[in-house]
Amino acid sequence: MTHKIYYDATCPMCQKTVRRIRERDEKGRFEYIPLDSDRARSVLSPELLKGDTIVLIEENGKIWLRSKAVFRILKFLGGKGSWLGFLVYVPGLDLFYRMIAHNRHLFR
Predict the structure, then answer these.
(1) Looking at the domain assignment, is residue 83 inside a domain?
(2) Is 108 part of any domain?
(3) H or E segment at 94?
(4) How many domains does the chain have?
(5) What CATH number did the domain enclosing 66 receive?
(6) Phi, psi values for residue 55, rounded to 5°
(7) Which of 35, 44, 53, 78 has the smallest CB count inside 10 Å?
(8) For the CA atoms of the chain, what is the radius of gyration?
(9) What is the pLDDT of residues 81-90, one digit of tens each?
(10) φ, ψ (nearest 5 deg) of residue 78
């Protein structure tokens, strides 16, 4: 069983991020599912399908959104960035995430 990452496949920044995760996912821990897919529509609420967030659903069913999902993914990947996993518990980081997400199509 794998953790599922739902992401905006129409966003260049999101595509690049998923590509980097795939490169580091040597153990095949993640499955990558575009938010605009039938599969995502069958699992996620309409609010989460807007495309302005990344959703991580762990194999145990725990759901992480936005910055918390990013930091949780880093923790699972291990290596240099895994120490950032503790940031999942820092309040307020979603504000920064939302600012970037709102302008995500400007990043290439």
Answers:
(1) yes
(2) no
(3) helix 93-102
(4) 1
(5) 3.40.30
(6) -120, 130
(7) 78
(8) 13
(9) 666 666 666 6
(10) 75, -170
High-pLDDT (> 70) share of the chain, %: 75
Amino acid letter, 78: G
- The owner of tokens 């709102």 is 102
CA–CA gap between residue 54 and residue 13 (Å, rounded): 12
Please give the single-letter amino acid code of residue 49: L
Please spell the DSSP secondary structure of 19-54, one letter per residue: HHHHHH-TT--EEEEETTSHHHHHHS-GGGGGSS--
Q: Which residue shows structure tokens 């518990």?
A: 89
Question: Does any domain span residue 87?
Answer: yes
* 64 and 94 Cβ atoms separated by less than 8 Å: no
The tens digit of pLDDT for each residue in 65-79 reads 988 898 899 889 887
Whether 34 shows a pLDDT value over 90: the answer reads: yes
